[in-house]
Amino acid sequence: MKKLIDQARDMDSTRLVTAATEIHYVNSNTIMIDDPLGKYLDVLGCNEYIGWYDGLPAKADSINWKSDYDKPIVFSELGGGAKIRVACRYFTIWSEEFQANFYKHQIKMLKKISFLQGMTPWILMDFRSPRRVLPGIQDFYNRKGLISNKGEKKKAFYVLQSFYNSLK
């Protein structure tokens, strides 16, 4: 990876270099970014799914982030799935309420990270994915989009829209 980073810098020294780094828990509520690749990067990247693949959304409220590097971080992936018009309580997975609640907890956690410089939800729009086979829900689509595959905005879209507007 270091050779690729060096090659990228040789090709264009004006661009920042980033990559999704490995993270790990040092205890039940602290995540450490200490991937050795981080020392070569300009911006640390991180993919995290607390509340989707890792516990329930409220788990994010108690998570603290630490880094061995004095560098900015961008969350390059975070998200949870929902099928459009599946309405239930906020604790019912695959519902729009669950996805919206997921992002509310993520935002609360992200606001506590002093070295955070950006984030992007995974992903803007549901897309075809042959590995997503759950009948009646996924039907060969990745449902983590903020917008359905038919262009309909999900409730989580408005949660993130409000968050981004608050940053103005």
Key terms:
three-stranded mixed beta sheet; TIM Barrel; 168 residues; globular; alpha/beta; 3 helices; four-stranded parallel beta sheet
Q: How many individual helices?
A: 3
The tally of domains stands at 1
Largest sheet at a glance? Answer: 4 strands, parallel
CATH superfamily: Glycosidases
Q: Looking at CATH, which topology would you report? A: TIM Barrel
What portion of residues belong to β-strands? 15-25%
Mean pLDDT across every amino acid position: 96
The end-to-end distance, rounded to whole angstroms, is: 36 Å
Low-confidence stretches: none
CATH architecture designation: Alpha-Beta Barrel
Strand order of the largest sheet: 1-4-6-7
* Total strands: 9
**Order of secondary-structure elements:** HEEEEEEHEEEH
CATH class: Alpha Beta
Overall helicity:
10-25%
If you compute it from the alpha carbons, what radius of gyration comes out, rounded to the nearest whole angstrom?
17 Å
The backbone outline, from C-alpha atoms, is: globular
Class inferred from helices and paired strands: alpha/beta
